[in-house]
Amino acid sequence: MKILIVNGPNLNLLGTREPEIYGSVSMEDYLLELTTEFPNNEILYYQSNIEGELINRLQKDDFDAVVINPGAFTHYSYAIADCLKNIQIPKIEIHISNIYKREEFRKKSVTAESCDAVISGFGMKGYKLALQSLL
Question: Does residue 30 have an active-site annotation?
Answer without folding.
Answer: no
